Recover the amino acids of this structure.
């Protein structure tokens, strides 16, 4: 039982490049989330998916898109990376909204 | 809109001393409340949560927190700190209903250092 997995663990991009962060969970959870973590700011919700087939914006959605590919997978895409998107990105999942969220190990992204 | 304030970005205690990490929230209705811990280079894991019922909540690793509605607080305590408690701690809130149901708002985090 791997829990929540994220790939890649670390990525360096140049400004304007695109990339997709992958997230998968094997706990049969309905809800999945993407956060970014910046020093002194805690975690901020980018997008979430309450259930398969639905997505909704969080606190900081600008510059990102998401896809809930199936119940297991929830990807985050940066179409044109900017230095302001340098951050650590965490994916999380929960059985249902307000149930305990389980976090992946994170992806460290550096945009030059 | 809801918000969370954690007083003190860094807290330092001696091993065996009381740990007190402060969290205050702002919300139009009493929210659901959470404490998460993050060890270096890892994701977050839940320590404890309050939804309804008893206001004193016990969590893992000997931590507990008390919901005080009148003070809009949810402070985290542990009677005796252990070296392994050194980590960053996050308080989070979520509204109990409405369109933001299930969305967590996190505080900025408190780094706990434990000295021998």
């Amino acid at each position: 039982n791997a829990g929540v997995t994220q790939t890649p663990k670390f990525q360096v991009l140049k400004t304007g490049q695109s990339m997709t962060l992958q997230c998968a969970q094997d706990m049969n959870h309905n809800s999945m989330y993407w956060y970014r973590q910046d020093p002194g700011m805690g975690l901020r919700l980018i997008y979430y998916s309450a259930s398969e087939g639905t997505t909704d914006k969080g606190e900081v959605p600008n510059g990102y898109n998401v896809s809930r590919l199936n119940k297991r997978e929830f990807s985050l895409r940066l179409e044109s990376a900017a230095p302001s998107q340098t951050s650590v990105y965490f994916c999380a999942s929960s059985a249902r909204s307000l149930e305990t969220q389980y976090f992946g190990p994170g992806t460290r992204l550096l945009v030059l | 809109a809801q918000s969370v304030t954690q007083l003190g970005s860094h807290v330092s205690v001696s091993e065996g001393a009381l740990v007190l990490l402060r969290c205050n929230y702002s919300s139009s209705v009493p929210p659901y409340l959470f404490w998460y811990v993050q060890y270096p280079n890892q994701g977050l894991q839940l320590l404890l949560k309050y939804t309804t019922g008893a206001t004193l909540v016990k969590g893992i690793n000997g931590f507990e927190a008390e919901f005080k509605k009148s003070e809009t607080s949810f402070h985290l305590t542990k009677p005796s700190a252990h070296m392994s408690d050194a980590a960053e701690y996050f308080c989070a809130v979520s509204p109990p209903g409405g369109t933001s149901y299930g969305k967590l708002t996190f505080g900025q985090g408190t780094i706990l250092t434990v000295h021998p």
